[in-house]
Design brief:
The complex is a heterodimer of chains A (about 110) and B (about 110). Chain A contains no helices and twelve strands. Chain A has about 110 residues and is mainly β. Chain B has about 110 residues and is mainly β. In chain B, the strands form two sheets. In chain B, strands 2, 4, 5, 6, 9, 10 and 11 form a seven-stranded mixed β-sheet that branches. A four-stranded antiparallel β-sheet of chain B has the order 1-3-8-7, with no helix packed on it. In chain B, a hairpin with an 8-residue loop joins strand 9 and strand 10. Chain B is globular, with a radius of gyration of 13 Å. At the A-B interface, strand 6 and strand 10 of A face strand 5, strand 9 and strand 10 of B.
Chain lengths: ~110, ~110
């Protein structure tokens, strides 16, 4: 069975600083990997996803993530954050046999001026 | 497209009452998912449908919960009878069928059971 671990429940950072949100997964089969963002009082929306090919994936709002198979990680990065990036970020994994997504517990990114 | 539509957006009810949550998926999507989000348990998949057929309901907490999808454009999640521990935000999401497809989430229904 697949599982996802988001190591940080909260990440405080100042505006214009770089940020990395960590995600590790566990799976015995090939997986697809996703990052979703949830702004306050809204549903989740896709930031980016890794299906195959280049291990560096670029998403919306200047975010990117790198798939590292040997370390079973899919960390999310942004070189310079804005106040508007304050939100909850969820890493998720699916396998090739179901349509289910397994979500991590989320990381709350708080950007301070 | 209007996106995934959920109603009501907020629901306050008393313990023991029946609650029905509604979802209209994005037109053309053939997979539909119901999730529950709480502080304690995070985001949990309750049930999902492919082509209106329930595929996996292993996340449904107990018999008090039921979900239906009578056609491609409508789904309901019913709780009967409701209990205070059912208080949560319930999300509906839809996608094209396939593990690589993006799920599009609705705005959620915030349920409070007193």
């Amino acid at each position: 069975a697949q599982s996802v671990t988001q190591l940080d429940s909260q990440v405080p950072v100042f505006e214009e600083a770089p940020v990395e949100l960590r995600c590790n997964y566990s799976s015995s089969v090939s997986v697809y990997l996703f990052w979703y963002v949830q702004y306050p009082n809204q549903g989740l929306q896709l930031l980016l996803k890794y299906l195959s090919g280049s291990t560096l994936v670029k998403g919306i709002n200047g975010f990117e993530a790198e798939f590292n198979k040997s370390q079973t990680s899919f960390h999310l990065r942004k070189p310079s954050v804005h106040i508007s990036d304050t939100a909850e970020y969820f890493c998720a994994v699916s396998d090739h046999n179901t349509d289910k997504l397994i979500f991590g517990t989320g990381t709350r990114l708080q950007v301070f001026p | 497209d209007a996106g995934v539509i959920q109603s009501p957006r907020h629901e306050v009810t008393e313990m023991g009452q029946e609650v029905t949550l509604r979802c209209k998926p994005i037109s053309g999507h053939n997979s539909l998912f119901w999730y529950r989000q709480t502080m304690m348990r995070g985001l949990e998949l309750l049930i999902y449908f492919n082509n209106n057929v329930p595929i996996d309901d292993s996340g449904m907490p107990e018999d008090r919960f039921s979900a239906k999808m009578p056609n491609a454009s409508f789904s309901t999640l019913k709780i009967q009878p409701s209990e205070p521990r059912d208080s949560a935000v319930y999300f509906c999401a839809s996608s094209l069928q396939g593990t690589q497809e993006t799920q599009y989430f609705g705005p959620g229904t915030r349920l409070l059971v007193l």
